[in-house]
């Protein structure tokens, strides 16, 4: 793996209200734009962040979002972490199914977000909260993705 | 606390109250030139002096009640509003809360100076206790000032949120029987409720057959926003109006597809012009350029 060429600074944002969701979207969009994400990619990652941050708020009872800019050689990317201390997800596979919802929504939050980013992983334990991590890379240089080259 | 200490503190507070009362005029005259009080100065300096006197009176009232450290002391009641105005005016001029707090701290120096002058007069007075009491009291005034500033800010934010809800959802009559709602900003649950209500109301009032929801100004369309849109469309349909969602940008269209949202039940167009053309055509109205190219006048 290529070592990070610049020290990555982490931005933590609270998720406790609808207004916080708007702020998370705003910040993610700003980071994505600065890292060189194209308009379509920006829209995708911001939408994914919106879905996951809302899950943190609605299902996790609030928590926080972390934004890590990624610099691996020439590759630029974003890692976003959504952390809550809520009830956790009992069956992650079921939760990742299109249309499955416990909150009255469309049931596309988690599964839809997965399709909008390059990687999505869920760490959860019933009663122990949930951490959802997503990674998206600027697609200009897909060949230099870390771990592959 | 030991009883003698308590008694000493009480006597210092009383002494402080007496000092503030006797030096009310001098303190007010000198505070009136401080930046904080200059904010209330509109026509003449006397206004600032009056404002200072009110604050000195409040301080003296708090001192005589012995509640030097209490931000909620009733003595501050009469000047709370004025302090709020002062803090708000300073923050409008671009000062941070920290800078405003520093300005409030500056007021203490003036009072301390006068107190020192006093101590040189009758030497039997125990100035250190009174000085301590004055410092505590001025610290509390600073907190009251901050508190009023923050609560004024919160009120302002709450009011602006309400204003935004109303302002950002106009319903426009585009043609006889065709209405448009340009949506701008974040479409959260509260906003979409307002949108739905004003849209349905307008459908009734204007006997609209077609309603165009334009989302050009909505930066992010996630599954919740899509759900709100679908509900609004379904409700409009129940009222006999056909809804068209316009302003779907390329990035939004791709995102919606990847998210897996099925908008096939909703009539969509990329621009408001297309949506209007569709609605006009459905009403049997044709728009065309005159053959001679001349304007009607």
TrEMBL record, chain A:
Histidine kinase/HSP90-like ATPase domain location: 40-140
Pfam families associated with the record: HATPase_c
UniProt protein name: Anti-sigma regulatory factor
Originating organism: Streptomyces fuscichromogenes
From TrEMBL, chain B:
Alphabetically ordered keywords of this record: Phosphoprotein
Gene3D superfamilies in UniProt: STAS domain (3.30.750.24)
Keyword tRNA-binding on entry: no
Limits of the STAS domain: 168-279
Pfam families the UniProt entry points to: STAS
Annotated PANTHER family: RSBT ANTAGONIST PROTEIN RSBS-RELATED, RSBT CO-ANTAGONIST PROTEIN RSBRC
Protein's UniProt name: STAS domain-containing protein
Species this chain originates from: Streptomyces fuscichromogenes
